[in-house]
Design brief:
Elements lengths: L1 H9 L18 E4 L2 E7 L40 E4 L16 E8 L7 E7 L5 E6 L2 E7 L5 E4 L9 E8 L24 E7 L2 E9 L6 E9 L6 E6 L4 E6 L5 E7 L13 E6 L4 E6 L4 E4 L2 E4 L2 E2 L2 E6 L13 H14 L3 E4 L6 H10 L2 E5 L11 H18 L5 E8 L5 H17 L4 E6 L2 E4 L2 E4 L10 E4 L16 E4 L5 E5 L18 H15 L5 E4 L7 E2 L12 E2 L12 H13 L2
Parallel strand pairs: 21-22, 21-31, 22-23, 23-24, 24-25, 25-28, 27-29, 28-30, 30-31
Antiparallel strand pairs: 1-10, 2-3, 2-4, 4-9, 5-8, 5-10, 6-7, 6-9, 11-12, 12-15, 13-14, 13-16, 16-17, 18-19, 19-20, 26-27, 32-33
The structure holds alpha-D-glucopyranuronic acid (GCU).
Length: 594
């Protein structure tokens, strides 16, 4: 356990000069900075670099105003266009639909800080690279478009006239995570909520309160304080089951917490969440936590000790009905509601950590979650900075969601080509994840190969290091016609459970024809009929998450009048219309429940 604190303290991140992620912002005094932000679109980054392409000390982060009629200032946030936050810029302005580059955001606010408190600015996410300034001072930077980060502004914030400036750059890079090529829209901007968080000067910074691996009674975790008064008595309370566990933090503000409790276990059928409070002399946080155990045994996945089949579907963070990056509780409820309608008890959130509302709603609705970092296709495996970036995104994903019962699988990669460098990279991520969270299952979406015309083999060396094998296959779409699935047999080198993490095909809603004609609903329906017959025959199959719940935007899909920059593999269209294949899968998932 002490090692865990060491790891959390040592996790190198852009916030090294700051404290790590504040685990839970619910129940804290927060001030939302959502809404209209002034923005400057800056394709040449002339607000950051001078004409010699050197970083300028006098960039747009100064939010400068001419002091006299001779003063030369060539930008002005306050008379510039605005963009909504949270929100991607691509769907807020036709000019920015394809835009990849820098946009500067500015938000002015007043803030009366109470004595003996600290203030942090918290970002749910910013795609992709964010440089953050307050009142003209750099307070930090963050790389990665799908995980939260916060910076302390206690010393910089003033009662009135604060200006928070964020340079957001979503340019794709070869050495980045994800890299240059993806099959989703590179929505840029402050895509999730921004808020100020006020804490006591010594506060409950982070905690893990979950069942010990393999146990259904023993709660095992830790609490970490941040601030001056680090030696304190901490009480973890779960009033409903009479738990009032008191421990003392050590000189670093850290305490382990272990106790037995007679808990009603969280499951899709009964997603029980308990009110949990963590009290210190100087602070108190509240959370709603579910308790469940998740393990594998041979080729079985065991939830609370009982075998479970993961009836799932993949979801991209595409806003239902309106398109663009989803970010709200309503978006989450709509998407997860459709998954429930499908008969799903599981969702694969692809290919990056989705917003916290998705995870909290899954916790509440009883939907198991596969959460993934965007190590997607051909990452620069031998680049140490790329590895550090991937480790950081993994650390932030786990830090935010480690107390969520719904999250059962961490995935470190999707469809990555075999090589020794790739294996070394992914093994590093897997051991990093296991060091941060020993309670959940590790997986990745791998690929398979034919050992003869009718036999598929899963023997990716990565499988050795995973708990659950994930495999993507497109028999009937990229690989032959739908009926090809009828002749296929599946084998695996590993005695481990398989989740078929992607399968399916494209169809334009309302486009009808014979089942052999691509892009028709009948063709997609046929793919699912043949797929399901094939999947039923795989002895070690313990879950499915077909590609994908709804159509989603992709710059790789320009076919006019069919795709129009939408990947049409959704079972539901981008206007919320259910395609024929939706009902084929729904029927199978119904059958599986009986
Ligand atoms: C891949 C990939 C997805 C992609 C899908 C497709 O398997 O993982 O991100 O969108 O196939 O081609 O539609």
């Amino acid at each position: 356990m002490k090692l865990l604190l060491l790891i959390f303290l040592l996790v190198p991140s852009v916030q090294a000069q700051q404290i790590g992620l504040i685990a839970n912002t619910d129940g804290r005094k927060t001030v939302s900075l959502n809404g209209q932000w002034q923005t400057i679109v800056d394709p040449y980054e002339s607000g950051y670099y001078n004409y010699r392409y050197q970083p300028s000390d006098n960039g747009y982060f100064k939010n400068a105003k001419p002091k006299s009629k001779t003063d030369l200032i060539e930008y002005d946030f306050d008379s510039s266009a605005t963009l909504n936050v949270p929100g991607d810029w691509n769907t807020q302005s036709d000019q920015l639909f394809f835009y990849e580059g820098t946009v500067w955001y500015k938000k002015s606010f007043d803030y009366q800080r109470k004595p003996d408190t600290r203030v942090f600015v918290y970002f749910g996410a910013a795609n992709y690279f964010a440089d953050v300034y307050l009142n003209g001072e750099k307070i930090g930077q963050h790389e990665g478009g799908f995980t939260p980060f916060n910076f302390e502004i206690t010393k910089l914030v003033r009662d009135t006239g604060n200006f928070l400036v964020v340079k957001v750059d979503n340019k794709r890079r070869l050495d980045a995570v994800p890299t240059l090529m993806t099959d989703w829209w590179n929505y840029g901007g402050l895509t999730r909520e921004v808020k100020l968080i006020e804490t006591p000067s010594t506060f409950v910074h982070d905690y893990l309160i979950q069942l010990q691996k393999g146990s259904r009674q023993r709660v095992s975790g830790w609490v970490k304080l941040a601030g001056q008064k680090l030696n304190q008595r901490i009480t973890v309370r779960i009033p409903e089951v009479g738990i009032n566990k008191t421990v003392n933090t050590d000189a670093r503000g850290f305490a382990e917490v272990d106790f037995n409790a007679d808990l009603k276990l969280w499951s899709p059928e009964s997603p029980k969440l308990y009110d949990v409070t963590i009290e210190a002399a100087t602070d108190q946080v509240r959370d709603q936590i579910g308790f469940r155990s998740i393990e594998t045994k041979g080729t079985d996945i065991l939830l609370n000790g009982r075998p479970i089949f993961l009836r799932g579907v993949c979801i991209h963070e595409e806003a239902p009905l309106r398109g663009g990056r989803a970010y709200s509780r309503e978006d989450a409820r709509t998407l997860l509601g459709w998954a429930k309608e499908l008969g799903a008890n599981f969702v694969r959130l692809a290919h990056y950590p989705h917003n916290e509302f998705m995870i909290r709603e899954a916790d509440r609705m009883g939907i198991l979650v596969w959460s993934e970092i965007p190590v997607y296709w051909t990452i620069q495996w031998e680049n140490a900075a790329t590895l550090e970036n991937a480790r950081n995104q993994l650390g932030e994903m786990i830090a935010r969601d480690k107390n969520r019962a719904a999250v059962v699988i961490w995935s470190v990669a999707n469809e990555t080509p075999l090589s020794d460098a790739r294996l070394t990279f992914l093994k590093n991520l897997i051991s990093h994840a296991r060091s941060l969270d020993a309670t959940r299952l590790m997986s990745a979406a791998m690929e398979r190969h034919y050992i003869n015309d009718t036999t598929q083999m899963i023997d990716d060396p990565l499988g050795e290091y995973l708990d659950v094998l994930g495999c993507n296959e497109y028999v009937g779409w990229y690989d032959g016609l739908p009926e090809k699935a009828d002749r296929l047999e599946w084998r695996s080198k590993y005695q481990k459970p398989l989740v078929m993490s992607e399968f399916g095909g494209d169809a334009l809603f309302g486009h009808h024809g014979d089942a052999g004609a691509r892009w028709t609903e009948e063709h997609q329906e046929s793919i699912y009929q043949h797929q399901i017959a094939m999947l039923k025959k795989i002895p070690f199959l313990r879950g499915t998450s077909p590609w994908i719940l709804t159509d989603f935007r992709s710059p790789r899909r320009p076919l006019p009048n069919i795709q129009d920059y939408w990947n049409r593999k959704g079972l539901i269209s981008n206007r919320g219309e259910k395609k024929k294949a939706f009902y084929v899968l729904q029927q199978w998932y119904r059958d599986l429940q009986h």
